[in-house]
Structure formats: structure tokens, C-alpha cells
């Protein structure tokens, strides 16, 4: 399991090696780690195994082709992979267009500021820790909200909880995760 | 001018997870394009998705999947969907890029249909679970008093509207559900343009607007 700062730093390096040197060995390691997770995400979202396998391969191929777009000062590799997988899910499973916010006028720097990259990695660390210590009910809800093709009203129907309760619990959990990620003690 | 009414976290999370209907996603994307604070919040909420991805119980990939993926890579990237509007065009726009992509241009390219009393609308082609429409409301003009059976999200793009005590200006979002019967009024000074998404027909409380309802297609 990755989790240490050193290992996550390494994923950033892997993407740089794909971008700069079309490094297949770096890709193979990323694939080994992320492809099964992406497949799990897609299956939890309602894809059958064949489709999830196919889409997970496409997500990983996209990672290769878009390696130059990855900005380690803005997101971890895991977060970036999550957004690519999420876009594939909207496209393949929901068969919708996904409106994306306007890009910021600047793209990734050729030589990203190491301090910023480290800051993002520390945030990922703290976030993983916060997720692990979330009360079970909140954690299950957060997971259902991200993984699993359920709208909040569908989660309400499934759990028998009022929609307002679902929303306020989720809001509380996200608030806590975001604050711990930023290292803000409250 | 700063954005004061923002999209709540749990709706950003539905958007981040890819579970929000396209019409609502268009309101979120437009708001995020106009609000730096919400953009940062969305990035944090996407980071939660990344953390859950790290933590999930993995599904083993099939035999030969890495080789199959490398073969896909060798075939080159899939053709990108052609952009209907270039993001590098200089200039300032009233409509943020996510909406321009649906219109194929800025406000002057919108095919408005008059719905009476100076109000105009244009329905955007989204998935059918929810409807997205651009509304043009002359300054000082009242929108019909209405409640909702479902959710309605409105982002202001030009001018402002007032709803009770609140004023919503460019970039601001109002999220209304069935508990809220509201009466938005376009602020005086400038005609108001907004994008409204709703997942159920609006329920007008006056008789006259109800007669208009089939005509309004909402």
C-alpha cells in the first residue's frame, strides 16, 4: 500500500518519466497500482466486469497520453487518476456530456515548484489519515457518495434516512476532511 | 465584484463524483469558472475522491491487460471532441466557457425565444433528467412566483436578481428545493441573464403563470 510521502512522491516522478521519456517501466508500475482501483471504482459505479476492465485500460491509456497535462502542484496522481476515471464513467456509464469549468489561464509549469509539490503530498497524507479516522457512518456515506452510482436522494431511499440527514452528514464529513487536509485545527 | 452565494459542498461532491445530471453540472461548471473559492473547494473535494481511490478494495485486472493497454497507447490518443469554441480566444465574455461550448459563441449567438413580458429563454441540449435554460429577464422585471417539486439551481451571468433579502450577482448561485417558494426579481440597472437548471417542472402559484406553463416548456 502506498501512503508514505516517499511513495506518493514517486508516483509524481512516474508521471514525469512517462511525459519526458515515454518510460514503459514507470507506466507498468502505475498500471499495477491504479488500474485495479479504477476497475473497482467503475464496477461499484454499475459497470459489469468486461466493461470496467476495458474502461480501466482506457483510463490508463489516457494517463499516458495526458501525462504532460498533469500538474503536481494542484493534485496528487491519485486525484488526477480519479478525475480521469470519473470522466470516463460519465461518458460510458451515464452517457452524458460533462460540462467542465473553464481552464485556468496557466497550465502546468515545466519545472514545478518543489515546495508546492511537497505541500500537495502532505495534504494527501493528512487526508488519508483523516479518512481513516472518520466515524464509520460518515465514512460509509462519503464512500457511497463518491463510489457507487447513487444520487443523494437514491442514497436516502436505500438507507431509509431523510435526504436532509444525508446531506448534512455528508457536509459535516467533507468539512472535516477538508479542514484536516489543510492542516487547520478547529 | 465578488461571488457571495456559493454551491454547497455536497453538491460539489456529486459533481466531483460524476453523479450530477448534466444540466446541474453545467450550472456547477459555470459557477466554478467564475468563483476562485469554489474552484479551490472543488479541487479539495476531488482530492477526497483520490484518497478513496487509494483506499478502495482493488479488482484484479485480467491477464494481459497491461500489454493490451500498451497496444492501445501505441495506436495513439483518441481524437479529441472538436471544441465548439476555442478557450484561447482573447476577450471578455458574458457567458462562461462551459455555456459557450453549448451555444457555440457568446450571448449574441443565443437563439432566444420570447416567453412574454420581455422575458426570453433558450433551452440547452442536455440529458433529459434535468433541464437547463438560459433566461433573459429585463431589469426590474418579476419572475413568476413559483415553488418546486424538485431541485432548481440558478447561476447569474449578467446583472443581478433579488430574492427576498438576498441579492444574487454575476457568479452567484441560488439553490432552491421544494421547501422554498421564492420570487426572484431582476435588479434594476441592467437586464439579468442567468442559467437555471431544474429536475422537475416548476410549480407556479399564480393562475396566469400556470396558463403559460405549457408554453414555457418548464
UniProtKB/TrEMBL annotation, chain A:
One of its GO terms (molecular function) is sigma factor activity. Gene3D superfamilies: 1.10.1740.10, Winged helix-like DNA-binding domain superfamily/Winged helix DNA-binding domain. Residues 125-177 form the RNA polymerase sigma factor 70 region 4 type domain. Keywords: Sigma factor, Transcription, Transcription regulation. Belongs to the sigma-70 factor family. ECF subfamily. This is RNA polymerase sigma-70 factor, ECF subfamily. It comes from the Bacteria. InterPro entries: RNA_pol_sigma-70-like, RNA_pol_sigma-70_dom, RNA_pol_sigma70_r2, RNA_pol_sigma70_r4_t2, RNA_pol_sigma_r2, RNA_pol_sigma_r3/r4-like, WH-like_DNA-bd_sf. Residues 30-98 form the RNA polymerase sigma-70 region domain. One of its GO terms (biological process) is DNA-templated transcription initiation.
UniProtKB/TrEMBL annotation, chain B:
Pfam families: Cupin_7. Residues 106-196 form the ChrR-like cupin domain. NCBIfam families: anti_sig_ChrR (TIGR02451). This is Anti-ECFsigma factor, ChrR. It comes from Tropicimonas isoalkanivorans.
Amino acid at each position: 500500500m502506498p501512503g508514505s510521502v516517499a511513495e506518493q512522491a514517486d508516483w509524481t516522478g512516474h508521471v514525469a518519466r512517462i511525459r519526458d521519456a515515454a518510460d514503459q517501466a514507470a507506466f507498468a508500475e502505475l498500471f499495477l497500482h491504479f488500474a485495479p482501483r479504477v476497475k473497482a471504482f467503475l464496477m461499484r459505479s454499475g459497470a459489469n466486469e468486461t466493461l470496467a476492465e476495458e474502461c480501466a485500460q482506457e483510463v490508463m491509456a489516457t494517463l499516458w497520453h495526458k501525462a504532460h497535462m498533469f500538474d503536481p502542484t494542484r493534485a496528487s496522481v491519485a486525484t488526477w487518476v480519479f478525475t480521469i476515471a470519473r470522466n470516463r464513467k460519465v461518458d460510458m456509464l451515464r452517457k452524458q456530456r460533462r460540462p467542465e469549468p473553464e481552464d485556468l489561464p496557466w497550465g502546468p509549469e515545466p519545472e514545478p515548484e518543489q515546495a508546492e509539490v511537497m505541500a500537495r503530498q502532505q495534504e494527501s497524507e493528512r487526508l488519508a489519515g483523516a479518512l481513516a479516522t472518520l466515524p464509520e457512518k460518515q465514512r460509509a456515506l462519503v464512500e457511497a457518495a463518491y463510489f457507487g452510482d447513487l444520487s443523494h436522494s437514491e442514497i436516502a431511499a436505500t438507507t431509509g434516512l431523510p435526504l436532509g440527514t444525508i446531506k448534512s452528514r455528508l457536509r459535516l464529513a467533507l468539512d472535516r476532511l477538508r479542514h484536516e487536509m489543510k492542516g487547520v485545527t478547529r | 465584484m465578488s461571488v457571495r452565494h456559493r454551491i454547497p459542498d455536497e453538491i460539489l461532491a456529486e459533481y466531483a463524483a460524476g453523479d450530477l445530471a448534466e444540466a446541474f453540472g453545467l450550472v456547477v461548471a459555470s459557477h466554478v469558472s467564475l468563483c476562485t473559492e469554489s474552484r479551490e473547494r472543488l479541487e479539495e473535494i476531488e482530492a477526497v475522491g483520490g484518497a478513496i481511490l487509494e483506499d478502495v478494495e482493488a479488482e484484479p485486472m485480467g491477464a494481459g491487460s497491461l500489454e493490451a493497454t500498451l497496444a492501445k497507447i501505441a495506436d495513439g490518443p483518441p481524437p479529441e471532441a472538436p471544441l465548439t469554441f476555442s478557450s484561447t480566444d482573447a476577450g471578455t465574455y458574458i457567458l462562461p466557457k462551459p455555456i459557450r461550448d453549448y451555444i457555440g459563441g457568446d450571448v449574441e449567438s443565443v437563439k432566444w425565444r420570447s416567453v412574454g413580458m420581455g422575458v426570453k429563454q433558450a433551452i440547452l441540449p442536455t440529458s433529459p433528467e434535468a433541464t437547463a435554460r438560459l433566461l433573459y429577464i429585463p431589469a426590474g422585471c418579476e419572475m413568476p412566483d413559483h415553488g418546486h417539486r424538485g431541485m432548481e439551481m440558478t447561476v447569474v451571468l449578467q446583472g443581478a436578481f433579488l430574492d427576498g433579502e438576498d441579492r444574487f450577482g454575476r457568479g452567484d448561485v441560488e439553490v432552491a428545493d421544494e421547501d422554498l417558494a421564492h420570487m426572484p426579481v431582476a435588479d434594476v440597472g441592467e437586464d439579468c441573464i442567468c442559467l437555471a437548471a431544474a429536475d422537475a417542472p416548476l410549480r407556479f402559484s399564480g393562475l396566469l403563470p400556470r396558463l403559460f406553463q405549457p408554453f414555457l416548456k418548464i
